[in-house]
Amino acid sequence: MATDANCIFCKIIAGQIPSMKLVDTPKTYAFLDIGPLAEGHALVIPKHHGAKLHDIPDDDLRELLPVAKKIAIASGAQDYNILQNNGRIAHQVVDHVHFHVIPKPDEKQGLG
Ligand code: 5GP
Ligand code: ZN
């Protein structure tokens, strides 16, 4: 399994940086985003280090969407975004592949 000692998400997987863990399997880790765009904003990452989607072997990708789906369902949100950025021009900041799961609040909530 490839890892990068300088990668912030590899450090999270290794427990060297704390995170709010949601899912932990031999190939996949999911945790809450430190700067959430909405309540419950989560990140789903392969344990295999790679900057972009094409850097990750297929075997290490298979669980990512099923785990993202599970987190989206568990959030209780009817609407949500699943996003995955590759490269600076595409707004990627952390160079370890990650899927964002962003629940969207129900707009009718609180309006009686
Ligand atoms: P990107 O723009 O690369 O797709 O998104 C990177 C995401 O990682 C951002 O939403 C940011 O808030 C999140 N992030 C960056 N550093 C940390 C960290 O140390 N812990 C957690 N939980 N999330 C982080
Ligand atoms: Zn990494």
CATH topology name, in short, is: HIT family, subunit A
Report the CATH C-level class.
Alpha Beta
Largest sheet report: 5 strands, antiparallel
Oligomeric state of shown chains: single chain
Mean pLDDT: 96
Percent helix: 10-25%
Beta-strand content estimate: 15-25%
Instruction: Tell how many strands the DSSP assignment holds.
Output: 5
| Spatial ordering of strands, largest sheet | 1-2-3-5-4
- Spans of at least 5 consecutive residues whose pLDDT stays below 50 are none
Structural class: alpha+beta
Radius of gyration, in angstroms, nearest whole number = 14 Å
What ligands can be seen in this structure?
Answer: guanosine-5'-monophosphate, zinc ion
Number of domains: 1
Overall CATH architecture: 2-Layer Sandwich
List the helices and strands and how they pair.
Layout: H1 8-13, E1 21-24, E2 28-32, E3 42-46, H2 58-61, H3 64-75, E4 79-83, E5 99-104
Antiparallel strand pairs: 1-2, 2-3, 3-5, 4-5
Bound molecules: guanosine-5'-monophosphate and zinc ion (ZN).
Residues 8, 17, 19, 31-35, 43, 85, 91-94 line the site of guanosine-5'-monophosphate.
Question: How would you explain this protein's 3D organization?
Answer:
- The structure is a single chain.
- With 112 residues, the chain is of the alpha+beta class.
- The chain has a single domain, classed as HIT-like (HIT family, subunit A).
- Helix content is 20%, strand content 22%.
- It has 3 helices and 5 strands; from the N terminus they run αβββααββ.
- The longest helix is centred in the middle third of the chain and has 12 residues, at 64-75.
- The protein binds guanosine-5'-monophosphate and zinc ion (ZN).
- Guanosine-5'-monophosphate (5GP) binds at residues 8, 17, 19, 31-35, 43, 85, 91-94.
- The site of zinc ion has 6 residues, from helix 1.
